[in-house]
TrEMBL record:
It comes from Onishia taeanensis. NADPH binds at N56. Keywords: Amino-acid biosynthesis, Cytoplasm, NADP, Oxidoreductase, Proline biosynthesis. InterPro entries: 6-PGluconate_DH-like_C_sf (IPR008927), NAD(P)-bd_dom_sf (IPR036291), P5C_Rdtase_cat_N (IPR028939), P5CR_dimer (IPR029036), Pyrroline-COOH_reductase (IPR000304). This is Pyrroline-5-carboxylate reductase. The gene is proC. Belongs to the pyrroline-5-carboxylate reductase family.
Length: 274
């Protein structure tokens, strides 16, 4: 029988994940989502046919898996208010919150709990997510496999065996959709400056991004080789790529990834003091 999964918080991330689970055939009767606001739960009941609760403790009461999907800033209060119900039930805890460590979450929920931390990203909303997962000492193989099933319903999954590596996952996947959107914005602006209508520039740039990503994913060659295949000697691409390299693009991405990872750590430390 399918595990009962309760989502605490029913926003973007939660609805992406349970939407993906249902699309992959997970029984909707086994899914519950909570939010204090029933007005936001009503359309979810209608669209997905899942159970909903405005009381988090009621949601935890028959859960095998509790997915924590509220904002990190309110997580402490949400966990503290669920402590007794969680300790009674001892479900698997899966958190998608940025920064908060497994130790912090376990402590806030009263201790002695299997906790999986997950760093997903927003393309999960369209089934093309990329998530990093880390399990604490109390998680067993069957629980790892449940978490893999949950997150693979919205994209790919990479397990890490050291929690600190989730900061790197945040830098190259969790936050990274925003870097690609920035590149699309910049290419659209450049296309417009060179005379294209904005809509054409956007369509061309986005389709190119999609095509380039698909070629890398097919795995015939690594990105460096695929890049060289576009670069005819003394041609247009060589001129553009040389400019990007000389302007320090690689170093800029490295620095962005470093400040991103550092902020994940800082958020965890700040919020973990509670
Ligand atoms: N947006 C992103 O790119 C990513 C977000 N995350 C993490 O996902 C988590 C959720 O983020 P989003 O879904 O984007 O936020 P959201 O704002 O869309 O959803 C949060 C939900 O929590 C509900 N909520 C508020 N107070 C509550 C309470 N006391 N009890 C139960 N539910 C309550 C709200 O009604 C809302 O539905 C965050 O912890 C964030 O760090 C992780 C990776 C990527
Ligand atoms: O920006 C943030 O803090 C969250 C975590 C990863 C993506 N969005």
């Amino acid at each position: 029988m399918a595990s009962n999964v309760t989502f605490i918080g029913a926003g973007n991330m939660a609805s992406a994940i349970f939407g993906g689970m249902i699309e992959s055939g997970y029984p909707r009767e086994a899914i519950t989502a909570t939010s204090p606001d029933d007005a936001m739960l009503a359309p979810l009941r209608e669209r997905y046919g899942i159970h909903t609760e405005t009381d988090n403790n009621a949601g935890v009461a028959n859960a095998d898996v509790v997915v924590l999907a509220v904002k990190p800033q309110i997580m402490h209060d949400v966990c503290a208010a669920m402590r007794d119900a969680t300790q009674d039930r001892k479900p698997l805890i899966v958190s998608v919150a940025a920064g908060l460590t497994a130790e912090t979450l376990e402590r806030w929920l009263g201790g002695d709990l299997p906790v999986i931390r997950c760093m997903p990203n927003t393309p999960s909303l369209v089934g093309s997510g990329a998530s990093g997962l880390y399990a604490n000492r109390l998680v067993d193989d069957s629980q790892k496999s449940i978490a893999t099933t949950l997150m693979e319903s919205v994209g790919i999954v990479e397990w890490v065996d050291e929690e600190v590596l989730l900061e790197a996952v945040t830098a190259v996947a969790g936050s990274a959709p925003a870097y690609f959107y920035l590149v699309f914005e910049a290419l659209e602006e450049a296309g417009v400056k060179l005379g294209l209508p904005a809509e054409s520039a956007r369509r061309l740039a986005v389709q190119t991004g999609l095509g380039a990503a698909r070629m890398v994913q097919q795995g015939d060659a690594d990105p460096a080789q695929l890049r060289r295949n576009v670069m005819s000697p003394n041609g247009t691409t060589e001129r553009a790529v040389t400019h990007l390299e000389e302007a320090g693009l690689r170093q800029i991405f490295l620095e962005a990834a470093e400040v991103c990872a550092a902020r994940a750590r800082e958020m965890g430390e700040e919020l973990g003091k509670q």
